[in-house]
Structures are given as structure tokens and as C-alpha cells.
Amino acid sequence: MEFLRAERPGRPESRGTADPSFPEGACELPAAVWEVFTRRAAAAGQPPADYLRAELVALARRRTVEDSVLELSEALGGDPGRAGELDEIVAAVRYARGE
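-> C-alpha cells emitted (99 positions)
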């Protein structure tokens, strides 16, 4: 966020430029989280409501680790002898996703 502050010194704080169609506090987000979303929306040139909607749609479409595990298990033919491989893959996916 420091980068955005440095690159956009003349811009008002994004919290004060909230989209009236999406009132501040509507989702009861912590102030720090709301600030991140509104700064990202400003950087993307979008109203906060549009940006947050796009992020929520992307999140809903993202496959879960469990979805991926099921597909991998099917691809491995459900072979119990390969369970160790699958466990390693799951651990790597969770690590990459920060889970």
C-alpha cells in the first residue's frame, strides 16, 4: 500500500471516496481490510463496489483444494498405492495457496 501512496500523492484517501451504492460498513469489514480493497479499486480505476463484486465472483469460481484433490485422485485412477504422491501434491498446493 505504501507504493500506492507514493505513486498517487495527490489522491484523497480511498476510504473517503466510497461508492454510495456500496455504503461503508455494509459488509462489516475491518477498517484495514476495507482500506486495502478501496485502494486496490482506486488503482484499478473502479468504484469499490464493482471491484469488490469482481473479487467475490473470482473467489466463488476458484476451485477448492478439495475439488483439485478429487480430480487428481480420479486422474490417478484411485490407486491406493499412489496416496503418498497425492498427499505430497495436496501439501504443495496448500503451501502455494498460503493455507
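The chain has a mean pLDDT of 77.
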